[in-house]
Amino acid sequence: MTPGAAQPYQLGAAEAALAIREGRLTAEELVVSCLDRIEAQEGQIGAWAFVDRQLALQAARDADLTRRAGKPLGALHGVPVGVKDIFDTADLPTEDGTPLHAGRTPAYDASAVAALRCAGAIVLGKTVTAELAVCTPGRTRNPHDPQRTPGGSSSGSAAAVAAYMVPLAIGTQTNGSVIRPASYCGVVGYKPSFGLISRYRVLRVSRSLDQVGVFARSIADAALLAEQLMGFDRHDPDTRMRARPDLVGFATQSPPLPPRLALVRTPAWPQADAAAQTAFAALAEYLGGAVSVVDLDDLLGAAVDWHRTIMEAELARNYRRELERGGAQLSPALRAILERGRTITAGDYLAALEQVPALVSGLEQVLLEYDAILTPAASGEAPLGLESTGNPVFCTPWTLCGMPAISLPLLQGAAGMPLGAQLVAARDDDARLLRTANWLASQVAQA
After folding, report:
1. How far does Cα 424 stand from its chain's mean position?
2. Cβ(169)–Cβ(143) below 8 Å
3. 229: which residues sit within 8 A by CB, 6+ positions away?
4. CB atoms < 10 A from the CB of 242, how many?
5. pLDDT given for residue 6 in this prediction
6. Does the active-site annotation cover 218?
7. Residues 33, 111, 126, 153: which is the catalytic one?
8. Does the N-terminal peptide bond of residue 208 adopt cis geometry, omega within 30 degrees of 0?
9. Cβ pair 261, 281 in contact under 8 A
10. pTM higher than 0.90, yes or no?
11. Among 105, 127, 141, 206, which one is least packed by beta carbons within 10 Å?
């Protein structure tokens, strides 16, 4: 690095990858810088479940040897990435945030982790997750205020990116586990459309709802990471053969016409705190004619209930062994959810699933008129206290429908903490969503 330049850990992913490719930075220098940053910050933040310094350094040295040998380089060559500790990793433990899985060492990588390595990324370590990726927090604290939650369940991934420990991280969302922590921690969180990224060898919470997402400090970096992960996987029956979208190209271009946004408060609007309501009113006023208020309360009225029924029924099925064999080691909150899930009838579960296609169709009709829905990413800034990961209700309808969503760190709460603006697009319209997000961020930057 040239004198006076940013420290390597401060670089964005695309910037770092280019510097490595051009020989202005080595992967080892970048990884050392990130590891040193972790060492300095981890005691206060607690973002990592497992980091092996020597393993990461060896991977970086191997990446540098590959570059010097003139071999082809992937889009993320030499770039360190944090991986939520529910993705299987063949060289690192995967313990899922529970003592019931302590010491678990998979023999194979999850498909998403394999895709990271194929792109040249270096898995720096495993980030903290809430217990079994549900609701009971891990030990992670918010980098902006350690007395506040970072959100969850992808808490460590969001916090690690926000604290400049890594430029990129991956997580999952079954309700609000990517978008909400991104909002609380002040980073970009992007959850692609359902089925675009394989969940093979990822802890199954709910097949109907689980979706892989990414964290970055810019829209372009989030697009770069997500693009490397997308593709058909015969091991995940919810993926399908389709062309990989040009996310990076769209995320860095201006739209041909000014976008039209539908400001959707959702039935959860009364749960948003006063500062969040004021911030969104000010954002809508600033955007002027680009935003129209659209009332979808009738359409979305039962979405939270349907989501709860589906999620809790599938949770009870997927975690039945943990409950039966080690229930005493589960948190009371998770045990209560699993017990409720056991009482859901097949009729109620199937009835909830049957509502989703009509809900998706209704939202797609709205999005024929608009480029994206604008809505809060969370009910407010990260709340004080570490007993909860916060309220996911502003994410629930879009997760239920498998729609792509992105949280942009554009606003602030009453205490000056980050507050995300969420954009949501029609299912599989991810490229246009990222282009619209780029436009919105540019508009706010001009304010």
Report:
1. 14
2. no
3. 112, 115, 116, 170, 197, 198, 212, 214
4. 12
5. 78
6. no
7. 153
8. no
9. no
10. yes
11. 105
